[in-house]
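Morning!

This is the sequence you dropped in the shared folder:
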Amino acid sequence: MRSIARSCLVAMLGFGMVNLPVFAAGGDPLGVVIQAQDALLSNANAAVGATVYPGDALATERDGTLRLRVGGAGQLYLAPSSSASLTENAKITHVSVTSGTVGFVSVTAADLELQTPVAVVRPANGQRAQGQVTVTGPNQMIVSAYSGALLVVRNGESRIVEAGKSYSVRFDPNATPTAQNAAGAGTSDQNGNGNNNGNNGNGNGNDNGQNGNGSGNGNGHDKGQLIFDAVVLGLTAGGGFAIWHFVTESTTSPD
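The structure's back. Tokens below.
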């Protein structure tokens, strides 16, 4: 009997050790793949129905596409030759865009935000928005708002891109910050998604703006300025409107 009991105990411990990493890894799911062609999910071929977890890397090949359902009713789209990764920050799906073009549909600003090497982009005014970003260089991107306004934020500086507008946005680290912000620009209040005093990030700062918990781009020592140049949406979006039409029309169709 003692030998049988010892064998059972060893088997139970072994089962627990084998399965513990499975339960501990990944965290809560952030999304699910609803379209994939020549795309990778954490270096494996992405398949429809695959679950996306925090830290998962997303990439598309030269002719690839990848579409995810994220943040409840939101969607994320990677155009060809694009890469990004997902994390969760204060219940917001945070998308780090490394290269290429990433589009999104977000029900509210509390659902989804994109961080690029240039700045953070999220829906403005807490409203539903559809848009995309294209990383064109180490310090440059194109931001296009197709429906709803987008907010572009870096180091306490912010600007709203209205629906139907597209801007080439570059960060000049040598520029002296000025009151360039145009109509609709500005930073948020003390308890919102913004940086009050320019210390440690742009998101969800406390009353004195220090030790922010959000995912802003930059910190209190990040000098320089965002420079916005208006561009023609139809010519610079690289077919983004057609892509967006496909994505939004597919939102209500069965997968």
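Headline: The chain has one domain: 29-251.

More detail when I'm at my desk.
O.
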